[in-house]
Amino acid sequence: MTKIWQFALFLWLTVVIILAFLWAPLAEGLGEYTRIIYFHVPAAWLTVLSFLLGAIYSIIYIKKREIKFDLYAESASQIGLVFCLLATVTGSIWAKVSWGSFWNWDPRETSIFILLLIYAAYFALRSAIEQEERKAALAAVYSLFAFVSVPFFVFIVPRIYSSLHPDPIVNPEGRINMDSKMLTTFISSLFGFTLFFIWIFKRKIDLIGLKLNLKKMEL
Amino acid sequence: MQLVLKAWFIFQKDLKQEFKTRYSINAILLFAIVTLVTVSFSIGTFAASAEIKSSLLWIILFFAAMSGLAHIFVREEEKHTADTLKLVAQPMSIFLGKFLFNFILLIVLEIITLPLFFAVMNFSVEGVTVLLSVLLIGSIGLSAGATMIAAIIAKASAKGALFTVLSFPILLPVLIAGISGTKIAVYESTFKAAGAELQMLFAYAVVVITAALLLFDFVWKE
Question: What ipTM was estimated for this complex?
């Protein structure tokens, strides 16, 4: 059964890529670089989702103290780190094309970079502690502590300082309407990548389950 | 009330310890002075704009804080007094006491470094009260965040580097608002002008202290 879903997901993403490169129209001024939207925004969305998931599992770990929740939080952060890197790089390419330079410390750029630093710091912390329970507890606390400072970047700083970034929530183009073909491709991409994330995360959870079972058997 | 009283005792204990050895204040002060001198020297005879000088001030303060604010917990671990401390007071009192100590340490640093900065860097501001408010409220947030992270890394290895790496993303809102507020203070002398920055710093301080008080239990207890 899962094989069918897996194949369906594969097909969906293949279609999204084809749509992105062959079917969707180009925006004025950006030319071929328009296509970045279909991958940059999902990547940014997924990194935020992973961050949220990591924070949620951190809370659950602190409440229940079962090591598997800490490992789930770690897995979410691993996936988040990869997508954060992708979002930063694709965003940087887009910035070069749209505004002339790879990096400008625009509030949105800063916030994605901060997220990258938070992920990196999370893993640096984890690798610096030997004992498993201490590692899990401290990593969970850091994850939550970092989580409370993120709203400042995402919501408050852009309100105070003018941003180069076009309105990132409604439309990445700065126009009120997105062409219907673009919108279709965009939403499909977002949806497809979210499913992709769920699939990868589920695989990681299964792997963690197996590892913990193996440990139990060894004992 | 017991909570605050205990926190006050812990603060006094750390203060007395600090007077005896002067370890933290020396480290933090020398670091700030060295950084200031390096900055001034490397700029040399060139005129740096007021915006750049504002940024440099906060860089000096941030890195000095990174060098000196972790001692409060690391020292407890090294001298093996952490376990006794756990028996003596509740986690909230411990956090409040340590936070107050770090805050006072940072303020003392700023009292000494700021006039030096004004003099050496030829920095002048229109709104001195604005600048002082920005620094004061910014220091509350900075020391609260740093105290929390110090508690987290106290039991880890590679403490020094890890402290800065962990603190930077968390403390960045303070840097952003602080630098911006300082830039505004150079030109304006009304509080209204720096209103947004002051509000953000205040909000940040409240959020960080609340989050730290809620989470400190889990860091402190085994």
Answer: 0.90
